[in-house]
Amino acid sequence: MKTLVVAERKGTDLRRVTLEISAKARELGEATVVEIAGERYSALPFVSALAKKVESEKPDLVLLGATLNGRDLGARLAARLGRAYAADVTDIRVAGNALELDKPMYAGKVRAKLRLELPAVVSVRPGAMPLKEGAEAPQVEKIDADASAEKLTFVKLAATATATKRVSLSGWVRRVP
Amino acid sequence: MKILIPLKQVPDSTVRVKVAPDGKSIATDGITWSISPYDEYAIEMALERKDADPSTVVVVVTVGPARSRDALRQALAMGCDEASLVTADNAAPLAVARALAKVIEEAKPDLVLCGKQASDDDQGFVGPALAETLGWPHVATITKVVPQDGGVELWREVEGGHEVWKAPLPALATVHKSEKEPRYPSLPGIMKAKKKEIPERALSALGVDASGPTWTVVSMEPPPVRGGGKILKDGDAKQIAQQLATALRDEAKVL
């Protein structure tokens, strides 16, 4: 099975969920990892660039992290491509020409096993597929966002005063013995 | 401004959701149904706009089974002006988006607000899919909308603050939170809502096919039974913090 993974960064580092889904994609078959370069995420420019990549690569599965942007991008992309879509899954298995997915539903009160026909778009819950020891960092191909597709104007970033008082946990993984 | 909110009727958040005997769905006999919580935020956001500018018209619509009518009645009771129902049983998500697009083409709202995701499937698909079907721009997870000359300012909550975007109208946004908590229907609101007509059409009457890419449920299970808690007490604060961090990383897998 051929998977196109959509990578995300936090600052300069690849997000951990990107590493997790890249490893999963390699486990499931052939994987290409792309990052859409743009100043910030916006649906139309990102969907447009990604749709072109899907057209040329023809992956069976497009895989994203179920992050704030990943969930949005995955949904609009699936609609553009007319592909089946599942958000925030916790496991993926190949089942013939389809995928079997584990997905929590009803605010976690139910665990569902779903069958999703390929081709599909799936977003994965961060942390659901933990990295194994010594997992290789993926090769990431950069593609440009399609600025001509944009219909919005970015005005500004309004920082929340309280945000600066938060302790970032992102460094903890490496510091815990 | 005319604001349209597509809403979804879901099991109420207080319902103790149980798997049905078929093992592939949830038991729905006698449960309470409600407007999906994030859709309530979307309705509240629209009604706050209406409070600020009484010329605002707020319209709700749902694509779903006949019982969804009750959710529309609830929205009218909160203060929405009009409601309509498109009846469909098990329509594929893209079919729902297409049906909503047809309703929107007729209703011609300036702004469409959707809850960011429904509390049953947590998909967050219909909002972006609807924007895509309409060919409109959209911003996801907003907490504020501010009308401007020639458009609206949409405040999108992100890590550490808000991205502020300007959209030309018509536009669509998915809502994470409104400024205030969703209002309770007032008694006059409930009485007024009882008298309002809620026009109904079948999905097929809109020329939309219910089929489309979707999943099939293989099985549904309740979550695993919770294990006991653990008390960390050996050592000083620093050592306990170390043990906690290790447990959070290795056992709970949340770091």
Question: Quick summary of this structure?
Answer:
Chain A is α/β, with parallel strands linked by helices.
Shape of chain B: globular
Order of helices and strands of chain B: EEEHEHEHEHEEEEHEEH
Series of secondary-structure elements of chain A, N-terminal to C-terminal? EEEHEHEHEEEEEEEH
User: pLDDT below 50 for ≥5 consecutive residues: which ranges of chain A?
Assistant: 172-177
Greatest chain-chain contact: A-B, 56 and 62 residues
How far apart lie the N and C ends of chain A? Answer: 37 Å
Structural class of chain A: alpha/beta
Description:
Chain A is an alpha/beta fold and 177 residues long. Chain A has four helices and twelve strands; from the N terminus they run E-E-E-H-E-H-E-H-E-E-E-E-E-E-E-H. The radius of gyration of chain A is 17 Å and the shape is globular. Residues 172-177 of chain A have low confidence and may be disordered. Chain B is of the alpha/beta class and 255 residues long. Helix content of chain B is 29%, strand content 28%. Chain B has helices at residues 37-52, 69-78, 93-107, 126-134, 187-195, 237-250, and strands spanning 2-6, 9-11, 33-35, 57-64, 82-87, 111-115, 138-148, 151-158, 161-167, 171-175, 200-202, 215-221. In chain B, strands 9-8-7-10-6-1-4-5-11 form a nine-stranded mixed beta sheet, with helices on both faces. The termini of chain B are far apart. At the A-B interface, helix 2, helix 3, strand 6, strand 8 and strand 9 of A face helix 3, helix 4, strand 7, strand 8 and strand 9 of B.
What keywords describe this structure?
heterodimer; A: about 180 residues; alpha/beta; 6-stranded parallel beta sheet; about 25% helix; disordered C terminus; B: about 260 residues; 9-stranded mixed beta sheet; two-stranded antiparallel ribbon; 6 helices; about 30% helix; globular
